[in-house]
Amino acid sequence: MLMRMYDIIEKKKQSESLTKEEIYYVVNGFTNGTIPDYQMSAFLMAVYFQGMTMEETVDLTMAMAESGDTLDLSAIHGVKVDKHSTGGVGDKTSLIIGPMLACLGIPVAKMSGRGLGHTGGTIDKLESFHGFSTVLSQEDFIRQVNDISFALVGQTANLAPADKKIYALRDVTATVNQMSLIASSIMSKKIAAGADVIVLDVKTGSGAFMETVEDAQELARIMVSIGRMAGRKTIAVISDMNEPLGHNVGNALEVKEVIEVLRGNGEERLRELSLTLAAYMVLGAGKTKDYDEARALLQETIDSGAALKKLAQFVQHQGGEPLQVFEPERLKVAEHTLSVTVEQEGYLASCINREVGMASLILGGGRETKESEIDLSVGLVIHYKLGDYIKKGDSLATIYGNDQQKMILAKERLLKAYTIADAPPVKQPLIKAIITENDL
Ligand code: URA
After folding, report:
1. Ligand 1 in reach of 44 Cβ (< 6 A)
2. 304 CA distance to ligand 1 centroid (A)?
3. What is the pTM of this model?
4. Rounded distance, CA 189 to CA 66, Å?
5. Which of 23, 46, 305, 374 has its CA 20 to 30 A from that of 150?
6. CA 237 – CA 271 distance, rounded (Å)
C-alpha cells in the first residue's frame, strides 16, 4: 500500500496508533532523505503531545536499531554485558566497572560516546591516556575482548544512523524530552551494539535528564520492556544525580579518580554505585545468582590489585601509556589552580548539578558543539558532599584551568550552584530503585 508522510502525521496528531509498517516508513524515509526535516519535525511534535504505545515504541526502537550496521558479537565467547548511563556529571563508573568485570572473565565489549553539553563522555576521558585510541576495527575489537575481556571504542558512524539524524532534529525542535523518543534513542544504540545483557544507569536529579524519580522510573520501565522484547536481558538502576558523582569533574581528573577507586580508595558513593552496577552485570552474565557473592567477587578484584592491572593492560592494548595507570601524576592536569572559598558557614544543602557540569564546560572540559576541541587537563575537584558542614573561608572546590578569565567564570558558576543552610538537607539515597523484567 502506498504510504504518505502527511497521512501518518495526521494519524498521530489524532492520537491514533501507528502500524509497524508506518513506523519503518518514517524512520527509513527520514534516514535516506526522502522525508524532509519539516515533515519529520511535525511528526516528532505530534509524538511529543500524543505519546506512543509500548508497541509503537518498540517498533520505533527496532527500526532505528536496524537503520545501519549492527554489531555481530557472536565470535566473542561468553555472555556479553554492556552498561549505559543516561548521562551525568562526574560519572566515570564505566572505567571502574570494565576492568573489574574483565578480571572475572566476563566479556565487556563496550561502545561509548563523547560528552555533550554539561555531561561528560567516556571516550574523551580515555583520551587523557597518552596515545590511547578509541578506534578499533571490528576484528581487533573482538580479538581484544577475547584476549583480555575488555575493549572500549567510540560509536561507529553507521551505528543507528536514524537516531543520529532524529536526535539532531529533536535537539532544535524542542522534542528531546519525550519518554518514547528518549527510550528508543538509547535502546536502539544498545541493541545495535550487540550485547546480551544491558544494565542501565538511569540518573535522576538536578544534573540528569529526568529530574524526578517518577519520570526516571517510567523511562526505566519503558527501556527494560524494550530490552525484553528485543531478547536482551535488561536491568535498570535508578541513581541520584543531585551532585557530582565522586569528587572530580573533568577528563584527566576523572581518570585519576578512577585509579583511586581501583587502588581501593576513592569517594564512597562513586565506589558504591560502581559496585552496584557491576554486581547486576555479574548476575546478568550468570556468574552467580547471589548479589552479595557478586559484590564480594568484584571487591576481591580491587583488593588483590587485579582490576588496576587490568586497566593498565586495557590502556596498553589500545595504544595508551600503561605507566600512567600506576603513576597517575603522569596524567596531564592543568597547572593553574584557583580555590573556591565560601563566605558563609553551614551545611551544604543543595546543588544545581547541571551548573557544576557547565563550570567544567566553561573551563574547556566539555563541548559547546559536537565539533568543539576540548581541553582534557581542566576541571574541578569538589572537596565537600551534600550534607557536609563547611566553615567560612573553607575551600569548597579547586578549579584546574589554563585561562584565568574562564577560571573566574567557572568559580562564579560553581558558587551559584551550591546553597549553604543552617540545617542539613534530607540525605538522598544513592540508589533510588531497581527495575527488572519482573517489575514490569
Ligand atoms: N541519550 C540519548 O542517547 N538519547 C536521548 O534521547 C537522550 C539521552
Report:
1. no
2. 37
3. 0.93
4. 10
5. 374
6. 15
Which atom of ligand 1 is found nearest the CA of 181?
Answer: 6
Query: What values do phi and psi take at 91, rounded to 5?
Result: -85, 105
Return the amino acid letter for 30: F
pLDDT in tens, 310-351: 999 999 999 999 999 999 999 999 999 999 999 999 999 999
What 3-state class would DSSP assign to 337? strand
Look at residue 232 and tell me whether its pLDDT is greater than 80. Answer: yes
Max CA distance (Å), the chain: 72
d(CA 65, CA 24): 11
The answer to whether the CB of 238 falls within 8 A of the CB of 216 is yes
Strands (E), 241-344: 248-249, 336-341
In what side-by-side order are the strands of the sheet with 418-421? 389-390, 346-351, 418-421
Q: Which of 163, 196, 201, 375 is the catalytic position?
A: 163
Domains of the chain are 5-65 (1.20.970.10), 81-327 (3.40.1030.10), 333-421 (3.90.1170.30)
Whether 387 has a pLDDT exceeding 70, the answer reads yes
DSSP-based three-state secondary structure for 338: strand
Of 54, 45, 67, 50, nearest in space to 14 by CA? 50
Neighbour count for residue 60 (Cβ, 10 Å) = 28
Q: Are 158 and 69 in contact (CB under 8 A)?
A: yes
Task: Give the residue among 94, 110, 199, 197 at the shortest CA–CA distance from 148.
Answer: 110
pLDDT of residue 115: 77
